[in-house]
Write a structure and sequence with these properties.
Distance between the termini: 66 Å
CATH topology of the largest domain: Thrombin, subunit H
CATH architecture of the largest domain: Beta Barrel
Number of domains: 2
Helix content: 10-25%
Length: 359
């Protein structure tokens, strides 16, 4: 359709363009942009939380779940498609879903480009990481790999970080976890004269590897770049809003959504509820309130669609008088904007190592 509009507009543009013709060309260009699909107008939709991408234009949420990568309908949670073998969704870029990792090959750093409507693979690429960097979809004890996708001038960059630490016991620190050497019980006279062994105060650096890097990504190819080229990228995606950036219509701390277009205002509630202590208000860019919610936390990564607001809930256990009232793993929670109630929730793959360490 928009190609026909373009041809008609170009046909009306004479060689000697006057103000009327320039205005007509501008109007035609705006009309062409309006007829483009929303995902074509939106060059990038970044993950608003680790492993969660909310495409408001399609009303679809892409989630990294314990047993699959899933595309879910935002309003109901209905699964539109899933891929059990794929890893973490990083972003939508130029109409394609960028995914990192394959669970069937968990040690291989592979990037996939998917059709977001069907989940079909459009392209894939093996990333060339340094030899001493171990790619991981899920953390291991003392070892972690993290990546995210950012854009600069509509170019996509994969920023990654890797750390590995030696697993050892706690270092001996005077007065905390180490006492003087015990004297011999068989000779009390020697015991009285022997000086105590000096206490150790050395703190041991257990870091074995700490490295980060960046790559420019295009479908089917990647090239390493210097991170200094990305200094302009706002790494603090959840910066609090101050002064002129704040909406004057609500109180509390305010945060802009990572994809832009919405603001969260958070404050303590006025009643004595000890669990749902925080009042969330979601605003659009004009300062109009779209929805209000009572939640147990002051802030969490969030994204907003036409009818719902989604946020990442950290793992928790809720007790009352020693009894477990509620337990929830790392989850995506979706709230209805109109009613303020929870619409649905889904467990997310928790990449952080939360179990015990080896002895």
């Amino acid at each position: 359709m928009w190609m026909n509009i373009e041809n008609q507009c170009m046909g009306r543009t004479p060689q000697a363009a006057g103000w009327g013709n320039r205005l007509m060309l501008l109007l035609c260009s705006l009309l062409m942009l309006a007829t483009l699909p929303a995902f074509a107008q939106e060059a990038v939709v970044p993950a608003f939380a680790e492993g969660v991408v909310f495409d408001a234009s399609r009303s679809t949420i892409y989630t990294l779940e314990p047993d699959r990568l899933a595309a879910r309908r935002a309003e109901s949670g209905e699964i539109l498609w899933d891929r059990t073998e794929l890893g973490e969704p990083l972003a939508l870029h130029n109409g394609q879903l960028v995914v990192l990792g394959n669970r069937d090959r968990p040690a291989e750093p592979v990037v996939f480009w998917l059709d977001p409507a069907t989940g079909a693979t459009v392209g894939e690429l093996f990333l060339d990481l340094p030899d001493h960097v171990n790619f991981r979809i899920i953390d291991a004890p003392g070892e972690s790999f993290r990546a995210r996708l950012v854009t600069v001038d509509n170019e996509a960059f994969l920023i990654w970080g890797y750390s590995k630490r030696q697993l050892i016991g706690a270092p001996a620190v005077a007065g905390i976890n180490r006492a003087p050497k015990m004297p011999s019980v068989s000779d009390s006279s020697v015991r009285a004269e022997q000086p105590s062994e000096p206490l150790s105060t050395q703190i041991i650096d257990t870091t074995l590897v700490e490295e980060k890097g960046a790559m420019r990504l295009e479908t089917g190819q990647a090239a390493a770049v210097s991170q200094t080229a990305l200094d302009s990228v706002n790494r603090n995606a959840w910066a609090m809003l101050y002064r002129g950036d704040r909406s004057p219509t609500v109180e509390g701390e305010q945060y802009r959504s990572r994809a832009g277009g919405h603001v969260l205002a958070s404050r303590l509630s006025d009643d004595d509820d000890q669990w749902l202590r925080h009042q969330w208000t979601i605003l659009d860019d004009e300062g109009e309130a779209l929805g209000r919610f009572r939640l147990p936390v002051a802030f969490a990564p969030f994204a907003v669609g036409d009818k719902v607001m989604a946020y990442q809930s950290q793992p928790y256990i809720r007790f009352d008088a020693g009894e477990v009232l509620e337990a929830r793993d790392l989850s995506l929670v979706v709230m209805d904007l109109e009613s303020g109630r929870e619409a649905w929730q889904a467990a997310l793959l928790d990449k952080t190592w939360r179990e015990g360490m080896p002895p």
